[in-house]
Amino acid sequence: MGIFTLLNVLDLLPHRPPLIMIDQLTHYDEKSARTVFTVRDDHLFCIDGRMEEAGLVENMAQTCAARTGFKQRLANGWDETVCAPDCGGESMYSPEKIKIGLIVMIETMEISRCPVVGEQLETAMVIEEEFFSTTFVRSEVKIGDETIATCRMKLFLTDRAPNE
After folding, report:
1. Rg, Å, the chain Cα set
2. CB 48 within 8 A of CB 57
3. E strands along 4-163, which residues?
4. What is the total count of domains within the chain?
5. Which of 25, 38, 120, 129 is close enough to 136 for a disulfide, judged by CB 3.0 to 4.6 Å?
6. Contact at 8 Å (CB) between 41 and 49?
7. How far is it, in rounded angstroms, from Cα 81 to Cα 92?
């Protein structure tokens, strides 16, 4: 069992329920990340068994946020030993606040269809360019082999954390 299966996404995101749009971070490196999310009927962006387009945008943005949160945790000394296999996915260290990021521009977006309840989204993001606190990313959402959404957006990382 790897570290990604043990992480609690609440340790990576400034978001809190009911706005959590990822279930698990499955990949991280300096320029990319991947997450999974299963669409649930009781979710904020689901209406009549279908996730709205805004949910797809938020899922892509939270994939970026999870990468940033994981990077921030690593910079503060978090490693695989922090969450041992017997921790059950619970955070085992005193979490500092994760910085808030904002979508400042969606340059291009294509959505071929919206997912329905029970489908699992696999979302990937790649950094195209970083300039100080601004990052240009390209994201893709798949269900199995089917690409259902792509996006290029600009994100801004603030110096603020929730409740500041």
Report:
1. 15
2. no
3. 24-29, 32-38, 46-47, 50-51, 101-111, 120-131, 134-143, 146-157
4. 1
5. 129
6. yes
7. 10
pLDDT in tens, 26-58: 999 999 999 999 999 999 999 999 999 999 999
- Virtual CA dihedral for 153, 48, 117, 23, nearest 10 degrees? 50
Residue 134 belongs to some domain of the structure: yes
Q: What CATH number has the domain bearing residue 41?
A: 3.10.129.10
pLDDT tens readout for residues 109-159: 999 999 999 999 999 999 999 999 999 999 999 999 999 999 999 999 998
Evaluate whether residue 142 is within a structural domain: yes
User: In this structure, what token pair is assigned to residue 129?
Assistant: 């360019």
Which two tokens mark 36?
């999974």
The yes-or-no verdict on residue 7 having pLDDT over 60 is yes
16: number of Cβ within 10 Å: 9
* 163 within some domain: no
